[in-house]
Amino acid sequence: MTTGTVPSFADVALNLGSSKILEDNLLLQARHHDMKLIFYGDETWLKLFPNVFTRSEGTTSFFVSDFTEVDDNVTRHLATELNAEDWRLMVLHYLGLDHIGHVEGPQSPLVKPKLQEMDDIVKRIHHMFLAWDKHFGLPSVLVVCGDHGMKNSGSHGGATLEEVLVPLVIIGDMCSGELSSGPFEGVLQAFVPQIDLVPTLSMLLGLPIPATNLGKMIPALLHNIPFSQQLYALYYNCKQVATQFENQISDSATQASYLEYKEAMMLHAIWLTSDNSSKSGLDGTIARLYMSALTGMSSQLADSLVTFDIPLLVTASG
């Protein structure tokens, strides 16, 4: 969710170590570009990203029987931070719902009140963002998501749909679930791979996409910027993923998605030197070629990282 990559077997095996993330990532890019970041919530973030946050306070996730204090310790900072104007990116990681799921399961009577509490917090932040948008003349973006789901038993860590499918809600003036006009007209993304969040947020924040990112931008969040910038964003994202594709996929130059990327770049170059009357016919073609190329290359790269030699792993562990 911060690097735009999928975990390897070693990453999964060493996950509990919570060691510093050394890969290029969204938070590090923000820090390097003089953005102030603040964080409140699961202290794991402070171990993964030391010296990144201007202000922070961690809460331990170890005491899973704690359903209230872990969240109260996050919310108590909201009043101060929502009245501060020095930060650009705030991360809040609430733990209470996760703890309820582990201890009592998803059918617990405590789930609904906890969800209502989270709803109220989202509403509170959103209302403040609306005021900020008018004051600063720039759109704010609120992202609400989970890092995992849970099984009916309350556990997670596997690959069942209940564990890997989680909601993603993005609230802001730049957001649209379905595009009614432009090159992505009618595009509705019911499913967004988790790795797509990083390049999308990088674009919205005006930051470089992390070098090892494998994800693609979410089209619905591009529609509010000039079309020339949309095409450049797609080109930049596609070029960055294509570099990974060239390095990691054998015979990359003959793959269909890579050929679409090359065709999109060729047409994009023609588009840039054409007069306005000639451009309209190419607009949608270029955008769709970039997105198709991104989708294909991203999917193939992600699949290559989660394909393991199971017999070899079992032999090694034995």
Automatic annotation (TrEMBL):
It is a multi-pass membrane protein. Coiled coil: none annotated. Pathway: Glycolipid biosynthesis; glycosylphosphatidylinositol-anchor biosynthesis. InterPro entries: Alkaline_phosphatase_core_sf (IPR017850), Phosphodiest/P_Trfase (IPR002591), PIG-G_N (IPR037674), PIGG/GPI7 (IPR039527). Its main location: endoplasmic reticulum. Keywords: Endoplasmic reticulum, GPI-anchor biosynthesis, Membrane, Transferase, Transmembrane, Transmembrane helix. GO terms for biological process: GPI anchor biosynthetic process. One of its GO terms (cellular component) is endoplasmic reticulum membrane. One of its GO terms (molecular function) is CP2 mannose-ethanolamine phosphotransferase activity. It comes from the Eukaryota. It holds the Pfam family Phosphodiest. It is found in: Endoplasmic reticulum membrane. Signal peptide: none annotated. Belongs to the PIGG/PIGN/PIGO family. PIGG subfamily. This is Uncharacterized protein. It comes from Cryptotermes secundus.
